[in-house]
Predict the 3D structure of the following.
Amino acid sequence: MLMKTQLRWAGHISRMEDRCLPKIVFCSELTTGCCNRSAPKMRYKDSLKQYISLGHIDYHQWSTLASNREIWSHIIHNAAVSFENTCRICLKEKRQSRKNHALPMPPKETSRCAFCNRTCLSCIGLFSHQHA
């Protein structure tokens, strides 16, 4: 839902005139403020690139595609559905691999008492039996 909303907003901003304040902020570069040490200065447009790649949209053509509102809406919807399906498949595979790699229960070791031939299910049980 967040991806869909952010892509819709980016399409709206890309259709604005260049002199509009949201578009100026959208395309501007951060000149003041705190960034992580050795991290590049990021723009909103740079963080948007991640959502575009997750939606399998060509990054170099997204603004051209966003110029037509109906096509962009269709592309966003398909990207969101594709992303959700990919996530579901990955989660199912991850769950299945966890289930397949689950350690089997070790067979219960039985121990017999040397004196009375009683079967104990654990070593501590045998120890307790012999010292009782």
Observations:
- The chain has one domain: 2-100.
- The longest helix spans residues 69-100.
- Strands lie at 111-112, 119-120.
